[in-house]
Batch of 2 targets.
Target 1
Amino acid sequence: MPDGWEVQYDLDPLVNDANEDDDGDGYTNLKEYKRKTMPDDYNSQPSKAMPWLPLLLGE
Ligand SMILES: [Ca+2]
Ligand SMILES: [Ca+2]
């Protein structure tokens, strides 16, 4: 994840926190980044209207 993105959401660019889930919404920081949702906001989650997206992203 780009450092600028991490700083924007109060994540630490020096730590590999891609697999952390800071806001506890069930999506890792990396997944939130890929889906352009907010990793520090529980209510900002990847849309469940696009169940095919993980396939597209190779997850
Ligand atoms: Ca999360
Ligand atoms: Ca979130």
Target 2
Amino acid sequence: MVDSLALENEYVLPTYEKFPFVLDRGEGCWVWDEEGNKYLDLYGGHAVAAIGHSPAEITAAITKQSAKLLFYSNLVYLKVRAEAAKALVDFCGEKGSQVFFCNSGAEANENAMRIARCVTGKAKIVAAEGGFHGRTAGAVAATGYKYRKNMAGLGCDIVHVPFGDLSSAETALKDAAAFLLEPIQSVQGCTTATGEYLNGLAALCKQNGSLLIYDEVQTGLGRVGAPSARHAFGARPDLQTFAKALASGVPAGAVLATPEVSAKVKPGALGSTFGGGPLASVAISATIKAIVDKKLTENAAEMEELIRATFNFPQIKEIRGKGLLLGLVLDRPSKPIRDALLKKKIIVGGADDIHVIRLLPPLTVGPAEIGLLRGALEEIFSAETVAA
Ligand SMILES: Cc1ncc(COP(=O)(O)O)c(C=O)c1O
């Protein structure tokens, strides 16, 4: 048998620390490795598998579409693209909102910043320190210090202010095109904005003729127990960016603009060959339909309640985040606990805050799977207590 782990290590640049197994297939909240071991995936394939792994509705949609028309670019109209845009507007936007499709979260953020610059005629972008927005030049320049250090010459005219601090935002926004932030800073450790902060930013942006951009690559599409952070926090951004769960694993990104901003975007301002292609489009429509039909937004809110009510371990000091974008803040570094969970065949995430276990499970997760995590944590924590 081919040793796929060795083969990948030989041929793929070692840019990621990987889980030590070769994944073969997935279904719902579960994935199987090549040796047939079954894992409970509470990391959701990096927050992508919102409607579960390899969902039948996506497989059916992309199979049917690929036999009909695999690709044509934005130079033609496509019924499936129109439907995907309508689905995203109906779920996360408002009447008159419009969509720009691209291929990833980084690209969505690049394009949102570009829209803000085109619309306002200003160059400077203000970003909240600690955010994560992607690895392309503009997106990484807006990202927290850990990721942008040693990257001289980004030249993207981006300044950072502390997350949650309205008075530094006020100063920085004076001559800015936009303020970009993740309403919940996921990679950082699920640091969560308050509604007051976001409403304050919205007011400051309005006052200064700047746009408010929410990076909803993780918070969007039902994960926070509401269609998007815009709905969960009650402050209206001018632009929202989406990716990850948007097409359930078919690469896709999107920028959603309010009617006022949409009205100011002109032909030629943006472009993408693959963005809004037929395969991504049918996957986007099927994903949003599944989230709505299966009431996964409501389930995310219920599962958050269950976790908050039952994860009452003294070792968990705080639970950050919303819905099924949660950070369990431990009283110690989380890595040994994450490793112990992996030995029990449960996949969870880490964060830049080394004390945090990040949960980003499929939104289809139920009480039984949450109970498995709780039971595993109980065993791990009590074994430690005995050992100590
Ligand atoms: C909040 C957020 N924004 C943007 C990105 C970048 O997305 P992509 O990797 O699709 O470029 C990520 C990726 O983890 C993310 O978490």
